[in-house]
Specification:
single chain, alpha/beta, 16 helices, 14% strand, RNA-binding
RNA sequence: GGUCGCGUGGCCGAGUGGUUAGGCAGAGGUCUGCAAAACCUUGUACAGCGGUUCGAAUCCGCUCGCGACCUCCA
């Protein structure tokens, strides 16, 4: 079953029904990280957002080819130094060592957030040939010019002949003229300030450089995505994603390069995720307004009062739509932690519910099925995780009521109970990719807790409240909370 | 300065022109040996000022505040 999904398309700024080029298949390209240091939370948010989309498309029955690149050359700093070269210089490593090191660490971090690996994760340096070919193609079409061994994209000519430079980012070329900063590298070589380099001649000190028809040099930053998306997804594919800070110039230039090289739009749908804020400002690697994922996990940061599990952080992010800014705060994280545990507790209790005996369609059946459908409808509507979560919490209330006997299981039919179990599992684990955090307790701990709860129950039967409360309060001090319910006592680690 | 977006109850955060978002916190209640948990009830919010409309948080205009992008950023 392939569901009908609506996506907010940045290209048209409208919500549109998603229609893949090839039925049942999706080509998805996401701009990945530049691996010159560790990812920060803002990166994580973006990749997590696309991971949810990837998972949901898969769950909806699509065959998805998910390409997310690793940028390991061409992405320059303000002073013109390559980010990877700088990392290599600072850490006294080979550039490729820097790349490998931070690629590994990036993967490890995304694993902690339980995101799926892409189908293909191509590196820019592994595709120098393709990029050189694309530069040549753009030159051949007359949309680029060479100056002193560097090749620049001719935005003026492109705009005149293709007429759509700036469409994605809403930019007008005349504005770019006046707004351009004058501290940019090789600005004087360009015919026009809005032109951009697609091949750059390397100076003597540059470590990372390759032979090309124009010079020994390296590709422009925007070029890799154009070349690699074309190679792995074809000249036109379904969805291109990235953070909205990439919209201009990166994505705008990417589109221009593809259109110039082959006269085709690279992606039918563009999806841009919004920024993660902290203290009301964009969380950003370059200006230091940031908290690292590790600091967030350990609590070792002035911005948080304690550490938060990656799953809590993920849950926190899921409560906001990907297209909205999200302001990180300790209060919000604490609230998210409780909400997350409530959801996971309910899921655990759901597993113990059995023997639904109603026949036919009861009111409760209808209500639960309606909630399930609403959760799917929310995801179909531009991947609205907050709305879907709200539905899961409605279901959570029902589950807890059933658990406590406030609603009787004989008001529920077995089919609907099964459907409920299946849906909760699919959403929590398959679509949201959450995992249990209290399962860190081993089998041993489970056994010990069973024994302790059993002993306390004996004490309670004997009205030995001193012993019963001592057990409870001591465990509480260890952050293990006992929960006395109708069907016995359960426990969680807080 | 240009472009775009946002401003929702104590906090976070959804939102289609008329119907309960949801989470956390708070209040009352049920349950419980007590407590916790859970469940039930509860808050009457949409920056301000105008306008359109039978009706606007939702559309339009203005004002104020905030943020993003404007060739480093997910």
């Amino acid at each position: 079953m392939v569901r009908t999904i609506h996506i907010h398309n940045s290209l048209t700024r409208k919500k549109e029904e998603f229609k893949p080029i090839h039925e049942g298949q999706v080509g998805l390209y996401v701009c990945g990280p530049t691996v010159y240091n560790d990812v920060h939370l803002g990166n994580v948010r973006t990749f997590m957002s696309f991971d949810i989309m990837y998972r949901y498309l898969l769950h909806s029955g699509y065959k998805v080819r998910y390409v997310r690149n690793i940028t390991d050359v061409g992405h320059l700093l303000d002073d013109g130094e390559d980010r990877i070269s700088r990392g290599a210089r600072l850490e006294q490593l080979e550039p490729m060592e820097v790349v490998q090191k931070y690629t590994n660490r990036f993967h490890a971090m995304m694993d902690r957030f339980n995101t799926l690996r892409p189908s293909i994760e191509p590196r820019a340096t592994g595709h120098i040939l393709e990029q050189i070919e694309m530069v040549q193609a753009i030159l051949d079409k007359g949309f680029a010019y060479e100056k002193n061994g560097s090749v620049y994209f001719d935005t003026i000519k492109f705009a005149q002949e293709k007429g759509n430079y700036g469409k994605l980012s809403g930019r007008v070329i005349e504005d770019l003229q006046t707004a351009t900063r004058d501290d940019l590298k090789n600005q004087s070589e360009k015919n026009h300030p809005s032109d951009f380099a697609i091949w750059m001649k390397a100076d003597q000190s540059h470590i990372m450089k390759w032979n090309s028809p124009w010079s020994e040099g390296f590709p422009g930053w925007h070029l890799e995505c154009s070349a690699m998306s074309t190679k792995y997804l074809g000249p036109t594919f379904d969805i291109h994603g990235g953070g909205n800070d990439l919209k201009f110039p990166h994505h705008e230039n990417e589109v221009a390069q593809n259109v110039a090289a082959c006269s085709c739009q690279p992606a039918n749908y563009w999806i841009h995720t919004n920024m993660l804020l902290m203290n009301g400002k964009k969380m950003s690697k370059s200006d230091g307004n940031t908290i690292s994922p590790e600091e967030l996990f350990s609590g070792d940061s002035p911005h948080v009062s304690k550490g938060y599990d990656p799953m809590v952080v993920k849950f926190f992010m899921l409560q906001t739509h990907y297209s909205s800014t999200l302001d990180l705060s300790d209060d919000a994280l604490q609230a998210a932690e409780k909400g997350f545990k409530k959801l996971m507790d309910a899921y655990k209790h759901l597993q113990n519910l059995d023997e639904a005996t109603a026949t036919g369609s009861t009111d409760l059946d209808l209500e639960i099925n309606k909630g399930i459908q609403a959760a799917y409808a929310a995801m179909d509507d531009d991947f609205s995780t907050p709305k879907a979560l709200a539905q899961l919490f409605e279901l959570t209330t029902k589950i807890n009521s059933l658990k406590d006997g406030h609603i009787k299981l004989n008001e529920l039919s077995p089919e609907v109970l099964d459907n409920l179990k299946k849906t909760m599992k699919v959403f929590i684990f398959d679509i949201f990719g959450l995992t249990n955090i209290e399962d860190t307790g081993s089998r041993h701990l489970n056994g010990v807790m069973e024994l302790i709860i059993d002993l306390r129950q004996s004490a309670r039967v004997n009205k030995d409240w001193v012993t019963a409360d001592k057990i409870r309060d001591t465990l509480q001090a260890l952050n293990i909370q006992l929960k006395d319910g109708a069907e016995g006592t359960s426990w969680t680690i807080n």
